[in-house]
Amino acid sequence: MNTKILFRSLLLFFFCIVKINAQEILTIENAVKIALENNFEIKMASNNLDIDKTNLAIGNAGMLPKVTANLVDANRIENSTQTLQNGTVNTLDNAKNNSLNYGVGLDWTVFDGFKMFARLDQLKELQKLGEAQLKRTIILKISEVNAVYFDLVQQQQQLSALDTTIVISTQRLTLAQNRFNIGKASKLEVLNAQVDLNTDKVALLRQKESYANRKIILNQILARDSKVDFKVVDQVKVDDKLILSELIALAEKQNPQLESEIINKRVSELQLKQIKANRYPRINLTTGYNFLDSESSLGFTAAFSARGFNYGLRASLNVFDGFAQNRNEKIAKIQLDNSKIAIEQQSLLLNSELSIAFQTYLTNLELIDLEETNEAIAKQNLSITVDKFRIGTITTIEFRAAQLNYINAKVRNSNAQFQAKLSEIALKELAGNMTF
Questions:
Q1: What are the boundaries of each domain within the chain?
Q2: Are strands 89-111 and 66-83 parallel, antiparallel or unpaired?
Q3: Rounded to an integer, what distance in angstroms lies between the CA atom of residue 99 and that of residue 294?
Q4: Partner residues linked to 76 by β-bridges
Q5: Which residues contact 284 (CB under 8 A, 6 or more apart)?
Q6: What is the distance between the alpha carbons of residues 119 and 237, in angstroms, rounded to a whole number?
Q7: What is the pLDDT of residue 367?
Q8: 2, 164, 202, 416: which one has the fewest Cβ atoms less than 10 Å from its Cβ?
Q9: SS3 of 289, please?
Q10: pLDDT tens by residue, 142-155
């Protein structure tokens, strides 16, 4: 009988090992890589940047001429009466007249108060703005992947802690049953051990549910099938070398939100420059080559044709437009002032957020050291309690208290590491330095 039980146990253990090895070990680096390749928000932001790149063209700025091909085919059938100077009257019913006019024309704005150059510079700034927005989308997505990933690491650690408590509770139930069988314990002690074991099993099931749901959420962020199974690493590594002054300096250079506000200010400056350009004259060169063929059933000329080249210059100047020019310039200046205020506001907000996040980061680093110490003490206390429980020198209540203290210490330690990691992620996100 013992041989059969041993064989079944070894077979079950082997099966579990094979199943675990079959699962994908998803590292944070691979998770970020998958997100950058598949995430829908990043793809849309990348497409928007492609639109900005496509719009950056001298033709879109108005620097190139416009060439137009024209064709006019006009036909008439009418009853005509024609009276000549000598009194002769010519009459013709259903007289046919047709005219065919076709050619190519060119219209080129050679001067518009330098508006076209300002427009080209504005298109360049808009492309930079698209790059900053894509960068911000990528940073936010990397931060989200990190947060969900290390939440999974924390929950995986809590699963391990709950597995441990079930082992301890099972051992306690076995000891209580053995003591009851030899008359050294009451039935109540066995029942209490059984209730506590069932309570631990319920907690484990709840934790497994939470862990499975977070895996689905991570798969969703990675834009892959929610049924893809994987495991995460066992530990949370926190970067404890961050320095506030360095983070602030990085943020001033590469925070995408601050960068966007600076670009928006430049766009506003160029918009004002374009509006001011309307005070200058607009000069256009025109040229073309046309063909004209016409036929008339009545008149001095039965047929007419012409071929020729035309050219000219057109100049226009806004003399008075109901003070619209002044209003537009005033509005553009106000918008420029708003963009300057937005930069100051974003810079102040960024420094405040960094300072707050850094203080939380320092606190969480201290909590890690404290909770690691608490876990070690709780583990030692539980070991002593188990030995005392075996020889019957402590009550089941004391045993359960020591057991819960140890499990809670492990959970708090895991949570402290996770919270410190979240603080690290927040700081790097604000600094625009979010990688893995």
A1: 24-56+113-281+317-430
A2: antiparallel
A3: 4
A4: 97
A5: 107, 108, 109, 110, 313, 314, 315
A6: 49
A7: 96
A8: 2
A9: strand
A10: 999 999 999 999 99
Pairing of strands 24-25, 230-231: parallel
| Separation of alpha carbons 406 and 160, rounded Å | 13
Q: What is the pLDDT of residues 396-416, one digit of tens each?
A: 888 889 999 999 999 999 999
Cα–Cα distance measured from residue 115 to residue 263, given in angstroms and rounded to the nearest whole number: 19
Global pTM value? 0.82
- In this structure, what token pair is assigned to residue 351? 């420094």
Give the DSSP letter string of 41-63: HHHHHHHHHHHHHHH--TTTTT-
CATH superfamily ID and name for 24-56+113-281+317-430: Outer membrane efflux proteins (OEP) (1.20.1600.10)
Q: Which two tokens stand for residue 44?
A: 């849309």
Query: pLDDT tens for residues 235-290?
Result: 999 999 999 999 999 999 999 999 999 999 999 999 999 999 999 999 999 999 99
For residue 82, what are the contacts with CB-CB under 8 A and spacing of at least 6?
Answer: 89, 90, 91, 298, 299
CB-based burial of residue 137 (10 Å sphere; 0-12 exposed, 13-18 middle, 19+ buried)? buried
Residues contacting 309, CB < 8 A, separation 6+: 287, 288, 289
Backbone CA torsion sign across 230, 233, 234, 238: negative
Residues 169, 415: Cα–Cα separation, whole Å? 23
CA distances from 264 to 29, 170, 250 (A): 33, 65, 20
Classify 85 as helix, strand or coil: coil
DSSP H helices in 277-323: none
Q: How far apart are CA 315 and CA 285, in angstroms?
A: 9
**Ordered strands of the 89-111 beta sheet:** 66-83, 89-111, 282-296, 303-316
Cα(107)–Cα(110) distance, rounded to whole angstroms? 9
* Residues 220, 96 contacting (CB under 8 angstroms): no
Q: For residues 157-165, give the mean pLDDT.
A: 91
**Per-residue burial over 100-131, b = 16 or more CB atoms within 10 Å of its CB, e = otherwise:** eeebeeeeebeebbebbbbbbbbbbbbbbbbb
DSSP 8-state symbol, 235: -
* Cα(174)–Cα(225) distance, integer angstroms: 43
DSSP 357-407: HHHHHHHHHHHHHHHHHHHHHHHHHHHHHHHHHHHT-S-HHHHHHHHHHHH
Looking at every residue in the chain, the average pLDDT score rounds to 89
As given in the structure block, the two tokens for residue 316 are 């226009």
Quick one: pLDDT band at residue 299, thresholds 50, 70, 90? Answer: low
CB contact set of 435 (below 8 Å; sequence gap of 6+): 32, 142, 428
DSSP 102: E
